[in-house]
Each structure stands twice: as C-alpha cells, then as structure tokens.
Amino acid sequence: MLTLGPDHVIWLDGQFVPWTEVSIPALSHGLHYGTGVFEGVRAYPTDQGPAIFRLKDHTDRLLNSAKILNMTVPYSAEELNHAQVELLQRNQLEDAYIRPLSFFGPESMSLYNQTLNTYTLIAAWHWDSYLGQENLKRGVSIQTSSFTHRHANSTLSKAKATGNYLSSMLALEEAKRNGYDEALMLDSDGHVVEGSAEHLFIVRGGELFTPPVTGTIEGITRDTILKLAKEQGLTVTEKLMTRDEVYIADEAFFTGTAVEVTPIAKIDGREIGKGSRGSITEKLQRGYFDLVHGRSKHHSNWLTYVRKEHDRRTENSSQYETAV
Ligand code: PMP
C-alpha cells in the first residue's frame, strides 16, 4: 500500500495537485495500450538533508525513452529536474522513491500516436527497499523464468516504457507464485538478460561479470556499480552468460534503483556460493550506500540536494546509518 497522506501533492503538467484530486481521463491511450515512459528515482537522507541520486541521468533516460516511442515531452530536462526537487520540498520527504511518468492522452483511441498529446506527472513517496530490508543482508532466492525476455527489436527494450513491463510482471508473478522472491529472465537464445526489473552481476574467481544491456535499459545502478568496482580495483567483464554460469558463480547480486544492491542467495533451488551474501557483494553494497547517503568523497556531482544551500549549512549534521 502506498503511504501518501491526504495533503500529499503530485506534480501534474506544471501544477502541484493534492494526489487525491488528480484525475486522469479514463480513455487515455496510455492506460489502454501501455504507451507511456517512466523513471524510478530515489532520494536518500544525507547529513545535508535529502539528496536525489543521479537525477540528471534518470531524466535524460526518461527523455530518451520518449524519443524511442516518438513521444514529445513538452518539458526540458531542467524543468523536470526542478519539479522533482520542489516535489520533495513540498511533501517534506526525507527519503523518497520518485516516479516521473509521461503518457499519451485521450485525444484518440487509434493506435496511431502522432495525433495525441503527452501528459506528464511526477509522484514521490517513501518506499523501503523493494525486495525487503532483510534480503539486503540475507539475499534473495530466484527462479529462471518460463517467460522469454522481450526481444530487443519488438517493443524496443531500451525504452523504459510502461507496456514493456507486461513480460516483467508475468515473470515476477510466476516466480512469486512458485515461492521465489524474483525471476531471472533469459533471451530467446538462452542468454541471461536480467531480473524482472533489475540487472545481474556474478562474481567468479574474484572477478565481476555482467551481461551486456543490448536487450534492455541502460541501468544507472549498474553503471554506478561498474564504476565503483573499478575504483575498488576489481576486474569487470561484460559478457553473454547462461543460467548454469549463474549456478556455479561464487556470488551474485541484482542492481536497480528499487532493489539497490541485493544479494542473490539461491537460484532454481541451488545455492550460489555459500548461499549467503558474499564479501565482494557486501563491499560493493557498502560503497553504494555510502555514495547515495553522501558519505563518500567521490562522485558528489551525482547528488542533487533538495534543501537550499543556506538551509543545508545550518542543518544539524547527523550521520545516517544504513542497515546493511
Ligand atoms: N531493468 C529494468 C527492466 C528496469 O526497469 C530497471 C529499473 N527498475 C532496471 C533494470 C535497473 O535500472 P536502474 O539501475 O537504472 O534503476
């Protein structure tokens, strides 16, 4: 259940509107055909108040997703970034999951999209780690999905488009119904692509491997981990891999804005390594949480502070701890 209070506002095409009063036309194209593009962004508490992690990169990806669908979003990246900062200020959120969404409206029910207007909303609310706080330590159990990952040339899987998530939803529902926490999706050749909505890394012999993102979105957490791993002196190789390569990995983990860095303990009933969070995963996880909470000296340009500079300087400096 979403935890939005009655005074909570949503940004809707330039206006801040109480979320209970937002009305979306029932005949919106986006609702009927999954013609929308969206982002999942997170803000974390830091000792200078909340900060949005890699906001510019998320907004650039949103606008690129729109470009792939040939959808015109009538806002600049700066306007969308500013709206997200102000949304957090107005809702007084100390941490947040932020959901910008652009979708086609109700101007026509024809599949042809070029006669349609684009509507944009941004919502933000508190959302704990997607796969559970406990699983950040313990690790999740996953199942290889019976659903093939969407083909790169069918719905254009570099777009974070709403309709693309039907196959993700089916895969996750199947995995959960079978008693697992998440799914692992393969392409039509049997190569690993990702989880239902998170990228995969494995560790073998002290080195890191991850599948290429040819058939899926370019992950911002994945990119963060690639950079962090190199800074920690790890060798990282992007390569095609099969499910049995995951079976014999020493460690494995998922990355994503929602799942953050979540260890994978088991796949298809087989333990990965010792069946618990591995030491390389733990170190990268710690590095990631240090970054997002502003405790690292590196990459400070990835943080967009929500409070004005003056308010940040006068703020009590308390250290935020993470539970991992
Ligand atoms: N794959 C898919 C299909 C996604 O939707 C997402 C975002 N939830 C990811 C991977 C992870 O991407 P990011 O690290 O940018 O959140």
Walk me through this protein's architecture.
The protein is of the alpha+beta class and 324 residues long. The protein is 27% helix and 25% strand. It has helices at residues 29-33, 55-68, 77-90, 133-138, 165-177, 220-231, 243-247, 279-292, 309-314, and strands at residues 9-12, 15-18, 36-38, 41-44, 51-53, 96-104, 118-125, 140-144, 182-186, 192-194, 199-204, 207-210, 236-238, 251-256, 260-267, 270-271, 303-305. Strands 8, 9, 10, 11, 12, 13, 14, 15 and 16 form a nine-stranded mixed β-sheet that branches. Strands 1, 2, 3, 4, 5, 6, 7 and 17 form an eight-stranded antiparallel β-sheet that branches. Helix 5 (165-177) links the parallel strand 8 and strand 9. Helix 2 (55-68) packs across helix 3 (77-90). The chain is globular. Residues 316-324 have low confidence and may be disordered. The structure holds 4'-deoxy-4'-aminopyridoxal-5'-phosphate.
Please mark out the parts with pLDDT under 50 across 5 or more consecutive residues, or reply none.
316-324
Q: Helix fraction? A: 25-40%
Mean pLDDT: 95
What hetero molecules are in the model? 4'-deoxy-4'-aminopyridoxal-5'-phosphate
User: Biggest β-sheet, characterized?
Assistant: 9 strands, mixed
How many β-strand stretches? 17
| Beta-strand content estimate | 15-25%
* Alpha-carbon distance between the two ends: 24 Å
Number of helices: 9
Q: What would you call the shape?
A: globular
Order of helices and strands: EEHEEEHHEEHEHEEEEHEHEEEHEH
Rg is 20 Å
Question: Which structural category fits the helices and strands?
Answer: alpha+beta
